[in-house]
Structure formats: C-alpha cells, structure tokens
Write a structure and sequence with these properties.
Elements lengths: L8 H31 L4 H7 L2 H19 L8 H17 L3 H11 L8 H31 L5 H30 L5 H22 L9 H5 L4 H9 L3 H32 L10 H6 L1 H36 L1 H21 L3 H18 L2 H7 L7 H8 L1 H20 L1 E4 L2 E4 L3 H17 L11
Helix pairs in contact: 1-4, 1-6, 1-7, 1-8, 1-11, 1-13, 2-18, 3-6, 3-17, 3-18, 4-6, 4-8, 5-6, 6-17, 7-13, 7-15, 7-16, 11-13, 11-18, 11-19, 13-14, 13-15, 14-15, 14-16, 14-19
C-alpha cells in the first residue's frame, strides 16, 4: 500500500467541495419537497411516506454500493465512478421534481391519456426516490474516501471539513432565495432553485473527482471472486469491537432526533409559526388566499436552515480540533445536548426570532453529527473494508428515518385541530420526540470507550 501523504488546507477544501454540492442538493430537497408535494395533494402522513425514500434507499443502496466500491478496480478509481454517477442522476431528478405536474400533463397530452389527479404526486414521489437513491450512491463511497486517502491522524479533521462543506452548502442553498428577495426584491422560483442545486452537485463532485487522487488498489485473488454477503458483512462489522455496537445505537437515536427537525421543520414554519392551515385538501381559492403566507413561511424556513448550517460551517473545523484535544465523545455529547435544548425551546415557543436563534443553537449539534460519529467509527475499520463498513453504518442513519417517516408522521396526522379554513396539525410535537431521542443518544455516547489513535 502506498504511504498516505498529509493533506494541507487546499487539498482538504478540494476534497470537501463535492460534499458541498451533495449537501446543496440535499438541502433543497429538505426545504422544498414539503411545499411541492403538499401542493400536489400530500397530507402529513403521505408526506412522511414519501420521505421513506431516503431511509429505504440508504439501507439498501449504501451497503451494496459501499461493498461494490471496495472491489472496484477501474482506472478512474474505486470511489469516483459512484460519486460522478450519483451526481449526474441526481441532477436529472432535481430538474424533474418541481416539473412533475408539467411532465405528467405533457405525457398525457402526447399519448392521449386521461391523467389521474394524483399522477403528478406519484411522479414527484418517484423523483424523490431516485434523488435519494443517487445521493446515497455518492455518499457512501465519499465517506469511504476519508480512510482511503487521508492519514489516520487527520481523520477527525477530514470529517470536520466534510461538516464544513455540509454547513456551507446548506447555507448557500437555503439562503440564496431569501437573500435575492431581501437584496433585489426578486423571488427565485422553486424550479430555479432546484436547477441551481443540480448544477452545484454536478460541478462540485466533478471538481473533487478531478483533484483527489485515489491510491492504486490491487485486490487479492480471493477478493475478486468473493461475492457480497450482507449477513457476513454485518457480522464482521459488529465483530470489529464491542464499542461499535454502542456507536451504532448512539447514531440510531441521534438520527431519530435529527430527522424530526430535518423532515418537518418547513411544515412547522408554515403551519405552526405562520399559522397556515393544511392545504392538501382545500379548494384552489383557499390555497390562493394563503399564497403569501406559504411563501413567507417557506422563506423563513430557508433563513432558519441557513442560520442552522452557518453555525455548522463556523464551528465545523474548531469541533475537529477540540475533539483531538478532548476526545470525540465529550465534544459530541455536549453538542447533542445543546441541540436537544434548542428542540425543547422550539416545541414551546413559536415566535419567529426566537425560533431562528434556537435553530442556530441546533447547528452546534449538526456540526458534530456530521463528523464525530464517523471519526469514532473509523478507528475500528480494517483496510480494504472502508466502503462496506460505512455502508452498513449508514443503516443506523437510514433506519431511524423509517420511524420518523411512519410513526411520527402518523402521530402528527392524528394531532389535528380545527381552524378557520379547515384543519391544522401540531407539528411542534416532533421537537419533543427529537429532544428525547437526542438525550438518549447522549447517554449511550457516555458509555463508549474511545480507542486512541496510537493504540493497537
């Protein structure tokens, strides 16, 4: 194996640019999929079911792609084909998603078909599933690049640069439309925002693939003929160390808490902070009367996500260095508890300025979530298994989302109350669930025994 050279700042930035694009695209999906699908007729429960795209593709795609990338021997590299392929297909889905109604109507007209009223919603759901699958195709091999090309003593810093890219990508994605509205009184359309995300993902990933050189990999003869066995890979994964199981349970509860905010915040902003009733089953006249409030709530959500990710961007690198000094576990616990505290505040106070401040506090936890669990796990990875290990670890990110997309959305769907123009829902209840899960994750993290970098 070739000796790994230390990364300098320029190389770290080039390495992280692809994740900037990936997160840019993902942030647009988080902020805008709710308004797009609700306008096409999705109730809170249906919206949650559409979000199942992420966890299901994550649990299936990432372990498989991770294992395939471990054994890929193309001249272009082990990981790079998956990074570029995922970015290209995601860009196509990002273009099609906001145009779902136009595309289905065009197909119906050209083929003389009668289009069902829910056809556009079904098409949008398929595009979301494709987008999520392709993001996962890129994400697993990207995480595996860290132990592939970065020296072990720089793993925490490398993951912190990924956190920095996640924060900056999300800030730009979330802040672009509100900034243009504030600075130039120009409201960027949803279509334009999705196209911007497609370009950012494709161009950022292309740059990373062009500038980061992968080590030449020569698989052993038995590795070339060995087929991917998920059960065996799972057993090998948990055999790495008893601490791996604790890290996985920590990650499981962390992501239940995190996704309670990620999935439902835009709906919380529109319907709880700005008081817009549910619009999935009302007349076009009522929908039109709330256009301004929906736009205001969506822009407020974008601003809050920009603040949330700006904090992540600012603290990402300091968190990496603090974790080197004080240990990953201690820094991660403090960060998660700060996020839980912010969630509790948003559950009980819906004043916009206070909510924006609390979203900033949540950004501390997000910066840590994006980096430190992966740094904790990377201490136990055996060379040659990076892709499959990161793919299996993603199950404990994707799996919790199934819980959030089904049971939590069902619970919110049951927590309705009457308002002037129909119904509304208690979206703020998701933050109570999220806070409880983050506290549980912190307690589990306190039981993890960290392995020193220089230990055997």
């Amino acid at each position: 194996m070739e000796e790994l050279k230390k990364f300098n700042t320029t190389k770290f930035l080039s390495f992280a640019l692809g994740f900037f694009g990936l997160q840019f695209a993902w942030q647009m999906r988080i902020i805008l999929s709710g308004p797009v699908t609700e306008n096409l007729g999705a109730s809170p429960f249906i919206f949650g079911l559409i979000w199942l795209a992420g966890p299901f593709t994550g649990m299936v795609v990432q372990p498989l792609i991770g294992a395939l990338s471990d054994k890929t021997t193309l001249r272009f590299g082990r990981r790079r084909p998956y990074l570029l392929g995922g970015a290209l297909l995601s860009a196509l889905a990002l273009w099609a998603l906001p145009n779902s109604e136009l595309i289905t109507n065009t197909i119906g007209t050209n083929m003389n078909l009668t289009i069902h009223p829910l056809a556009a919603l079904c098409f949008a759901a398929v595009m979301i599933w494709i987008l999520d699958a392709c993001v996962n195709i890129a994400q697993g091999p990207y995480r595996a690049l860290v132990p592939d090309v970065v020296p072990q003593e720089q793993h925490s810093v490398a993951n912190s640069y990924i956190s920095l890219a996640i924060g900056l990508g999300s800030v730009v994605a979330a802040g672009a439309a509100p900034f243009l509205k504030w600075a130039f009184n120009y409201q960027m359309s949803i279509n334009a925002q999705f196209i911007m995300a497609a370009l950012a993902f494709l161009l950022g990933m292309t740059w990373t693939c062009m500038t980061i050189k992968e080590r030449k990999y020569e698989p052993k003869e038995e590795e070339q003929t060995e087929k991917f066995d998920f059960i065996k890979s799972l057993k090998d994964f948990f055999a790495l160390s008893p601490e791996v199981g604790k890290i996985c349970w920590m990650q499981f509860f962390t992501w239940i808490g995190n996704m309670c905010m990620m999935i439902y915040f835009t709906q919380y902003a529109i319907h709880t902070v700005y008081g817009v009733p549910d619009l999935s089953a009302v007349s076009e006249a009522i929908k039109s009367s709330y256009d301004h409030a929906v736009l205001a709530g969506t822009n407020f959500s974008s601003i809050c996500f920009a603040i949330f990710n700006l904090v992540c961007f600012v603290v990402a690198i300091p968190i990496g260095f603090l974790s080197v000094k004080f240990g990953n576990k201690k820094v991660h616990i403090i960060s998660m508890l700060s996020m839980a505290l912010a969630f509790l505040g948003m559950a009980f106070c819906h004043e916009p300025k206070f909510v924006a401040v609390l979203m900033g506090l949540s950004g501390l936890g997000w910066a840590s979530i994006c980096a430190l669990p992966f740094a904790m796990l990377s201490q136990y990875i055996k060379p040659g298994t990076e892709g499959s290990v990161m793919g299996i670890f993603n199950i404990f990110i994707a799996g919790p989302q199934v819980f959030v997309c089904t049971l939590v959305s069902w619970f919110i769907n049951k927590c309705s109350f009457n308002v002037f123009d129909g119904l509304n829902y208690h979206w703020e209840y998701t933050f109570l669930i999220g806070a409880a899960c983050l506290v549980a994750a912190s307690l589990i993290a306190s039981r993890v025994k960290e392995k020193g970098v220089n230990q055997g």
